[in-house]
Amino acid sequence: MQVGIDQIGFYTPNKYVDMVDLAHARNQDPNKFLIGIGQAKMSVADQTQDAVSMGINATLRYWNKIDQDKIGLLVFGTESSVDQSKSASLFVKTALKMKPQVRTFEVKEACFGLTAGLMIARDFVRVHPEQTAIVIGSDIARYGINTPGEVTQGAGSISMLVKAEPRIFSLNDGHSAYSEDINDFWRPNNRATALVEGKYSTQVYLDFFTKTFATYKEQKNWHTQDFSSIIYHLPFTKQGLKANRLAVENEDEETTKRLMDNFESSKQLGMNVGNIYTASLYMSLLSLLENAKLAPNSLIGLFSYGSGAMAEFFSGNTIDGYEKQLDIDGDQKLLSRRRKLSIEEYERIFTVGLDLPEDGIVLESDESAGNWYFAGTENNVRIYKQK
Ligand code: CAA
């Protein structure tokens, strides 16, 4: 029995900052951001979009296409959690009117959270093949105005339906994991923005990639040329490019070209949305599926990295006809509907978003009809509404 991804839903908020504008405002050469970092735009969440609302909106992208009664598990991976105790998934469950019998919880290990959820879902479906699982990754990357990490911010969510005999992507057995207790990137409970040892984090990422990729190939007795593509967690696209360059070192011309070309396809969404932490690797998967020409049953390697740090390399294969399950036009519209912010507007929205609105204040959203948003708190309970 194959188990894997049957549906992928994507959501990003309706505002963005252009990296050329940001570079000018920060007295930087735009090519540092466009080429040196590899980012063109970043989505910006205002106070009415948070991890929960974005996760609902991503799931809604496929919600009416699936058998909702079969869902037995709902896992939410995030490092932009809205509560220290209650799972973000419970708000999603209520918004989508899921049945009470669903097992549901939130997981955290930085950007690795959605991969953890996906692996739990895969194993759940293996044991309960008649049931399905939804896994959501949803985050707002916030480093702060005028920090080196500012150019690597972003906001968005990916939601996936995991089931037996999936129609998009089957997950292979086995994985190689590697973890170490380090301080490359973290966000203490009293902070709304991340702390980061930027240069160190980029080195650890590459080190963990080298280790997990080598171990995985050894475990499966596979070689680099067996992979049609390798895709990455993309905190910014240059980071993935550097890992991909390591992957193709000493490989033949054909393998190098294929892996470099497919990397280009996989980075298109990330380059225009920014870092969405837990969901970033899966936005790379969606971008690859939408932009590359992949032969049936193509072997795709996935590198997941969560600071702190935990990394995993695993793989899957495309299912024949996967294109029919995608909504490429819908994803393009989602990006093109975004309004470009001036740097002043972005800075104001960013600053307001660091705090909760005063209890009892009702927030209005400028999202399009049908989307969910955070409407403020009533007696310190978070309220979500549909536009
Ligand atoms: N034209 C072209 N390229 C230029 C340029 C120009 N005019 N000016 C500079 N560059 C290049 C530099 O040569 C450099 O390229 P290389 O990395 O290939 O050497 C690149 O632009 C970046 O320049 P700097 O190293 O000087 O950039 P910086 O000091 O401003 O910071 C950063 C870069 C450390 C990544 C910073 O943005 C940051 O801290 N980001 C957040 C942390 C992060 O994303 N870490 C990634 C690994 S951790 C992870 O993956 C988990 C997660 O999601 C956070």
Number of E-type strands: 17
For the residues shown, what is the average pLDDT?
98
Shape: globular
Helix content: 25-40%
N-to-C series of helices and strands: EEHHEHEHEHEEEEEEHEHHHEEHEHEE
N/C terminus separation: 41 Å
Provide the low-confidence segments as ranges. none
Q: Please count the helical segments.
A: 11
- Radius of gyration from the alpha-carbon trace, in angstroms: 20 Å
GO molecular function, one term: hydroxymethylglutaryl-CoA synthase activity
GO biological process, one term: acetyl-CoA metabolic process
Active site: 79 (proton donor/acceptor), 111 (acyl-thioester intermediate), 233 (proton donor/acceptor)
Family: Belongs to the thiolase-like superfamily. HMG-CoA synthase family.
Overview of the structural elements:
The radius of gyration is 20 Å and the shape is globular. A hairpin with a 2-residue loop joins β16 and β17. Helices cover 36% and strands 25% of the residues. The protein has 387 residues and is an alpha+beta fold. The termini are far apart. The longest helix is centred in the middle third of the chain and has 23 residues, at 198-220. The strands form 4 sheets. Strands 1, 4, 5, 6, 7, 8, 9, 12, 13 and 14 form a 10-stranded mixed beta sheet that branches. A 3-stranded mixed beta sheet has the order 3-2-15. The protein has a two-stranded antiparallel ribbon with strand order 10-11. Bound molecules: acetoacetyl-coenzyme A. Acetoacetyl-coenzyme A binds at residues 29, 31-32, 35-37, 111, 148-149, 151-152, 184-185, 196, 198-199, 201-202, 205, 233, 235-236, 239, 275, 277, 305, 307.
